[in-house]
Amino acid sequence: YVWDANEEYLFKAMVAFAMRRYSSKSTTQISNVLLCNVTDRVSFWFVVTDSSKNVTTVPGSEVEAAIRMNRNRINNAFLLSDKTLQFLKITSTLSPPVEPSTPVWLIVFGVVLCLIVAGIVFLVVSGIQKHKKKNKESTDRENLEEKVEVTLENGIPCEALDLKAGHINGVFAADDERFTSL
User: Fold this and answer.
1) CA atoms within a 13 Å half-sphere pointing along the CA-CB vector of 90
2) pLDDT tier for residue 118 given thresholds of 50, 70 and 90
3) How far is Cα 124 from Cα 139, in angstroms, rounded to an integer?
4) pLDDT band at residue 181, thresholds of 50, 70 and 90?
5) pLDDT per residue over 13-46, tens digit each?
6) Are 36 and 45 in contact (CB under 8 A)?
7) From CA 136, how far away is CA 155, in angstroms rounded?
8) Phi and psi dihedrals of 12, rounded to 5?
9) Is 48 helix (H, G, I), strand (E, B) or coil?
């Protein structure tokens, strides 16, 4: 925007305001703020005078302290920030640290809890898959053993002998009772 006499008046008023707030005296007037060497790029230096004392200018340390104390109000008056409104020899004010809406410990706790839950779910799912795979392998072995036991003799499927339990031949089992023993 254009820096004109109205903007200069506002700047002088803001510096006078800062000086009044800092010193708690109402002796500083707008006419006590003098702008010198104003350029087109809005660069200048200023002096604050004190008409109540014999001293013609206020010490620079007091002016710096007053501006540092009220810098936010001055920036807001011109709709600027510390990056756009620069006072030489006066360090810029640090903005307060940003506080997250949730505490940091809660975020860390949530991440750790999610990792633990994911690990437990992984272990349960992998255990179930191993159990199913083991059951499938055991049923496949039983099926293979049953297929192996069935043999063919003379084109007729015959069951293999179960050597542990023995084998009863059905042809002779019923005949033992009909015939007399020798």
Assistant:
1) 19
2) very high
3) 23
4) low
5) 998 898 888 887 667 888 888 888 887 777 778 8
6) yes
7) 32
8) -60, -40
9) strand
- The 10s digit of each residue's pLDDT in 74-113 is 888 877 776 666 666 666 655 667 777 888 899 999 999 9
Q: Is the Cβ–Cβ distance between 35 and 13 less than 8 Å?
A: no
CA geometry: angle 68, 27, 61, nearest 5 deg = 30
- For the chain, the domains span 5-78, 99-129
List, in order, residues 6 or more apart from 36 with CB less than 8 Å away: 44, 45, 46, 47
- The C-alpha atoms of residue 57 and residue 45 are separated, in whole angstroms, by 14
- Specify the pairing of strand 156-159 against strand 150-153: antiparallel
Determine if the pTM surpasses 0.70: no
Buried b (16+ CB within 10 A) or exposed e, 32-65: bbeeeeeeeeeeeebebebeeeeeeebeeeebeb
